[in-house]
Amino acid sequence: MPFFSVIIPLFNKAEYVERTLNSVLLQSFDDFEVIIVNDGSTDNSLKIAESFTDDRIVIYSKDNKGVSTARNYGVTKATSNYIAFLDADDIWKPNHLNALHNLIVDMPSCALYCMGYIKQKSEKSKIRAQFGTIADGYKGVVSGYFKNSLPFTIAGMGAVAVNKAKFIEVGGFTEGVTHGEDIELWTTLALQGKVALYNIVTVTHLINIKGRVSNLKIDDKVFPDFNQFNEAERKSKDLKVYLDNNRYAIALAYRLAKDSKNYKFWKNQIELENLNKKQKLLLKLPVGLVVTLKEIHQFLLEKGFYISTFR
After folding, report:
1. How far apart are CA 210 and CA 125, in angstroms?
2. Residue 120 needs a FRET pair 20 to 30 A away by CA distance; which of 44, 231, 297, 300 works?
3. SS3 letters for 232-290?
4. Which residues cross the membrane (predicted)?
5. Which SS3 state, helix, strand or coil, does residue 106 take?
6. Do β-strands 160-163 and 82-85 pair in parallel, antiparallel, or remain unpaired?
7. Element (H or E) spanning 121, and its range?
8. How big is the CA angle at 81 (ends 167 and 6), to the nearest 5 degrees?
């Protein structure tokens, strides 16, 4: 039995998957299996993945059902007690699995294990995730997971490992949810168990920002039902603030898409006192001006200037 099962959902990532797989195979800790779930790719992604001859790689192909279903399917095929998730366009540093392994050995009772990460929004824009007041280099159980998951979520996709038994116990990713499925699952795990963090950067998470804001499609996106956490939110102000910031992101996406019905639905769930001044302003400004500001924001990101309404 390998120590880690690395789960990689694959859908039309021909431009990136070779680099991603190489980053896995170059790990200094080599006790792992790689489970690639080809989720109905229509480009050369599968062919590129099949060109790798490492015995640790196993590929399964299935009809396209979305990333949540693909990850859950991968876990059913996993033989390890710990699952490390990686998207097919992200990159691990060679010490990633070794650092995760050490974290698990030191703190074996946790449900979720996290590493530091960089978000790369363009070749010029690389942003180091900052977790509240947690210092760089911190290694241990996280106190105040939700409070410290702003402006960046401590558990970043590609930078986490989960206890397989805990994953199965909570039901895995909600199938059918296409955006925010990771936020939902990490929240569930953080409410039920301990979260460990080793705050050194071992992951680069690529963010696609191409395309005009006015052309972004949202009709086919399915977001989690955060109302499932209402009771927990009543007991935890930090959780309410954290989820309201995620609700704000969804509400703003619908506003940018000029979908007033869904915008109002998500906005009405937010306690505005939990947002900062910039966020409140964007919810008040005329839609056309918000779209223009977002396009300026994307342009600045591409040029290497990071501006966020979450801080």
Report:
1. 13
2. 44
3. HHHHCHHHHHHHHHHHHHHHHHHHHCCCHHHHHHHHCCCCHHHCCHHHHHHHHCCHHHH
4. none
5. helix
6. antiparallel
7. strand 112-122
8. 80
- How far apart (Å, rounded) are the C-alpha atoms in residues 40 and 123? 29
Superfamily of chain region 4-206: Spore Coat Polysaccharide Biosynthesis Protein SpsA; Chain A (3.90.550.10)
Residue 297 makes CB contacts below 8 A (sequence gap 6+) with 307
Q: Is 133 exposed, middle or buried (0-12, 13-18, 19+ CB in 10 A)?
A: exposed
Structure tokens at 22: 């190489």
**230 secondary structure, DSSP code:** H
Which pLDDT band, with edges at 50, 70 and 90, does 295 fall under? confident
- Beta-bridged to residue 91, according to DSSP, are 204
Nearest C-alpha neighbor of 148 from the set 267, 245, 248, 249: 245
pLDDT digits (tens, 9 = 90+) for 118-132: 998 767 778 899 999
d(C-alpha 257, C-alpha 245), whole Å: 19
- Taking Cα atoms as reference points, which of 61, 63, 54 lies closest to residue 34? 54
pLDDT per residue over 180-214, tens digit each?
999 999 999 999 999 999 999 999 998 764 433 33
Conformational region of residue 81, where left means phi above 0, alpha means psi within -120 to 50, and beta covers everything else:
alpha
Calpha distance 251→283 (Å, rounded): 9
Average pLDDT over residues 212-220: 56
Report the predicted TM-score, pTM, of the whole model to 2 decimal places.
0.92
What is the C-alpha to C-alpha distance for residues 213 and 269, in angstroms, rounded to an integer? 24
- How far is Cα of residue 125 from the mean position of the Cα atoms in its chain? 18
The three-class DSSP label of residue 81 is coil
